Amino acid sequence: MKRLPSSEKSEFDPIGEQLWEEIVYSMDQYTHDSSISKFYSPESILKYCKTDAVIFTQLLYTPIPSKASAQKTNLYRIMYLSMSCGVQIYFKERALLSHVPYGILDTNLHLRETRNKIGKMLSEGIKVKPPVSQVMELFLLNLNSQKYIQELTLKGREFNAEKFDNLLPAAVMWGYLFAKELVFDIH
User: Fold this and answer.
1) Distance from the CA of 28 to the CA of which of 4, 22, 82, 142 falls in 20 to 30 A?
2) How far are the Cα atoms of 5, 8, 68, 120 from residue 117, in angstroms, in the given order?
3) Rounded to whole angstroms, how far apart are CA atoms 103 and 50?
4) Are 45 and 179 in contact (CB under 8 A)?
5) Burial of 2 per CB tally in 10 Å (0-12, 13-18, 19+)
6) Sign (positive/negative) of CA torsion 41, 44, 45, 48?
7) SS3 of 100, please?
8) Each residue's pLDDT tens digit in the chain (187 positions)?
9) Crossing angle of the two packed helices 43-58 and 74-97, in degrees rounded to 10
10) Hey, is 36 helix, strand or coil?
C-alpha cells in the first residue's frame, strides 16, 4: 500500500473534518460507570485486531520475534492503535451516514475469510477516497514521527523503518476494512 496523498492537494472534506473531531473527542471520553475510553469500543471487533497487530509487528523485525515478545513492544502498541483508529473511522463514518442498527458476524470461518479478503485487497492496492483518506492521513501525520522510530528498535533485531512507513497506513486501513466486513445491518 502506498503512502496517502498529502492533505495540501485537496480541500478538507467537511465530513472528514467531523469524523476526525469525533475520533479525537472520543479518545478522551469515558463512560460514567467505567474507566474504559469510548474510543476503544466495540471490543468484539478490536479483540481480533490484537492478533493482526502482532502479525504486522512481527513483519517489521529480523529475525521475527515470538508472539509474546512482539506483544511487549512499542511497535505492537502503535499497530494496535492504528488498527483501532481504522475501526473507529469506520464506525464514526457509519454513524454519520446512517443510523441503522448493526450486528457483528464473527464466526471463525467468516473471520478467516475476512482476513484473507482484506489481505488480498491491500496487496492488490485500493484507492481510499475522502473523507476516509483525509482522516487516515491526519491520524498518520500525528503518529508517524522520527522520534518513534528510535523507540521501536529491539535488542538483537533489525527494525525495517521503510516497511514501517508502508505498513502503518495499511494497519489503519486494515482496521477500517475489517470492521466494514464484519458489520452487517439489522433490519
Assistant:
1) 4
2) 24, 32, 26, 5
3) 20
4) yes
5) exposed
6) positive
7) coil
8) 444 444 444 576 777 777 777 776 665 555 555 555 455 467 778 889 999 999 999 999 999 999 999 999 989 988 998 898 899 889 888 888 887 888 889 899 999 999 999 999 999 988 888 878 888 888 777 776 556 666 787 888 998 888 888 888 999 999 999 999 999 988 7
9) 140
10) coil
Report the alpha-carbon angle 90-25-48, nearest 5: 40
Cα of 138 vs its chain's centroid, Å: 13
Q: How far is CA 155 from CA 37, 78, 132, 151, 185, in A?
A: 33, 18, 36, 11, 47
Residue type, 12: F
